[in-house]
Amino acid sequence: MRYSFPLIPGRFLRRQQRFLAEVELSDRSRVWAHVPNTGALRGCASPGQEVLLTQDGRAGRKTAYTWRFVKGPESWICIDTMAPNRLVAEALAGSGLPGIPKPLQVRREVSLPQGGRLDFALDLGGEMAFLEIKSVTWVEGGVALFPDGVTARGRRHLQELSHLVRQGHQAWQVFVVQREDARILKPAAQLDPGYARELALAARNGVEILVIQEKVTPPEINLASTLPFDLS
User: Fold this and answer.
1) Deepest in the core among 55, 104, 155, 190, taking most CB within 10 A?
2) 17-46 pLDDT, tens per residue?
3) Are the C-beta atoms of residues 79 and 41 closer than 8 Å to each other?
């Protein structure tokens, strides 16, 4: 996946609410950029950090800029939470995802009969598999941590995946780590113990867990390799 708009360098100044960030450009001018990430962005939003923006002048936007990347301690980090879904969709249409059977058909943004919605439904020919994708940007000491804020929605997705397993379907929780300095993924139990418990329970119930790390070389990002996980 490659961003088609040129990348504009700047430095992060501050975040206003969830969806706006003030950025100082290289000419010292200041602009507001859309933040395509509703999370806390722990470790990714410190004043002075290098960032890369794209510019899109479409009518109706509150700002012409969108924040895409931030420079971490070792490498660039993609903060765009829609990027993992696009990468997974490309993989499913191509060579597939590790451990997941190649689908005959893929549907996105699937509404469930009991309510709720998941990112992908795969027709495997005789059975179905459902995927929920989570973007991971928080890493400490080589450990990728999710979530970076308390997430009732994330717990609900795990419950929905468990329910689908009980109905006889395959279900996968896919974590996409959007940076290259992680060696393992763990649930952020210190921040959201409820999510950590729900993830462990879902795994015991038969929900499969897949962790994939991106290779981030702005303006391009690609799914690279799988990572281990530890639910303890």
Assistant:
1) 155
2) 889 999 999 999 999 999 999 999 999 999
3) yes
Q: Report residue 64 as tokens.
A: 């012409």
**What gap in Å lies between CA 135 and CA 174, rounded to an integer?**
9
Q: Closest by alpha carbon to 53, among 81, 84, 80?
A: 80
What is the distance, to the nearest Å, from the Cα of residue 39 to the centroid of all Cα atoms in its chain? 10
Report how far residue 39's alpha carbon sits from residue 147's, in angstroms, rounded to the nearest whole number: 8
Helix or strand holding residue 156 (H, E): helix 152-166
DSSP string, 89-134: HHHHHTT--TTSPPPSEEEEEEEPTTS-EEEEEEE-SSSEEEEEEE
The pair of structure tokens assigned to 214 is 């991106």
Inter-residue contact 149 to 135 (CB < 8 Å): no
Question: What is the 8-class DSSP label of residue 159?
Answer: H
Q: Which residue bears the tokens 């308390």?
A: 150
Neighbours of 208 (CB within 10 A): 17
Domain interval for residue 49: 8-78
Predicted confidence (pLDDT) per residue in 56-66, tens digit: 867 667 789 99
Which amino acid is residue 55, in one-letter code? Q
Residue with tokens 């890369």: 52
88 and 61 part of one domain: no
Single pTM value for the model = 0.95
Here the CATH number for the domain that contains residue 41 is 2.40.50.580
CA 6, CA 57: separation in Å to the nearest integer? 13
99 and 38 together in one domain: no
User: CB–CB of 32/21 below 8 Å?
Assistant: yes
Q: Which amino acid is at 33?
A: A
What domain count does the chain have? 2
**3-class SS at 22?**
strand
